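User: Hey, my collaborator sent me this sequence without any context and asked if I could get a structure. I don't really work with proteins. Can you help?
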Amino acid sequence: MSDTPTPPTGHAPARRAARWRIGFDIGGTFTDFILHDAQRSEVVLHKRLTTPHDPSEAALLGLDELVAMRGIGLADVAEIVHGTTLVTNAVIERKGATLGLLTTRGFRDILEMGTEQRYDIYDLFVAFPEPLVRRDRRLEVDERVDALGRVVTPLDEASVERAVHRLVAEGCEAIAICFLHAYAHPAHEQQAAAVARRLYPQLAVSLSSEVVAEMGEYPRCVTTCANAYVQPLMAGYLGRLQAALAQRGFGGSLRLMHSAGGLVSVEAASAHPIRLLESGPAGGGLATALFGTLAGQDDVISFDMGGTTAKACLIEGGRAEIAPLMEAARVHRFTRGSGLPIKAPVIEMIEIGA
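Assistant: No problem. I've predicted the 3D structure and written it out in structure-token form, which is a compact way to encode the shape of the chain:
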């Protein structure tokens, strides 16, 4: 029996549902859970080993066990907030989708040319991360837009069709589209995406004009490729998770934490999973800022020791700094310029192997 008094208006289910909230974070080693009881201002903690072959397995088992500790069901929970390191692990471990790239004719080597800056000018054997797309899967199409967004060469849809057919025949599950100056004139990318989706509706397609609508061809292309690389993984995982929660009676809101500490819907996370690159660690930084403020300390250091990585974040004035770019999969751990530049807002922190 519920210990919440039943209101005379008959709105007991809504009142009971608003009482419970869950947060859970999938790490490389453990999946952690917390259940918040708003009525009693209490929390319940739980932990399970992560199941790398299917992270939703440990997540769902842990959620069932968590609510059972309070004698409720997932139908009683109003909101679930989810943090995860699945995106960053997939990029670092190269466990994403087989990926193809469509780009403007003459520009398929931008992923290897980069910014033409060496992070160590004295190292004759300086190394960079391997591009997420093999060179033979980077195909050029006829189109050109100038820096002001004016069309120089219209998009040749026939060349797009040929390129998409070839990439799918080679086993590509996802395609990134990154045309020159698409941030100023996205129509060509949108046309190419429409062609790809018409030919192969199951194909994951990422557009640079939607992922990073900014100048800077190299980081824009890298970020778009990274988004496409993890898109099938995250869309599949989130779809399975959402369906399993619905079967358990959960009718509340499921939201995911993004790298800058905000919350996004399942639909937004599926479309732009690269924004979840530092999803889990961001939650640790925000929690430290909150606890510091409650303790009367606005300047603190967050230290989050996981089983796979340890994270440190500086909190100044009660807030964590938000950086516009981060580097993933660095060849040299602490050397700026040795990793893949990802243009997405992220809480600024240092992350090392535990």
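In plain terms: The chain is about 30% helix and 25% strand. You can pass these tokens on to your collaborator as they are.
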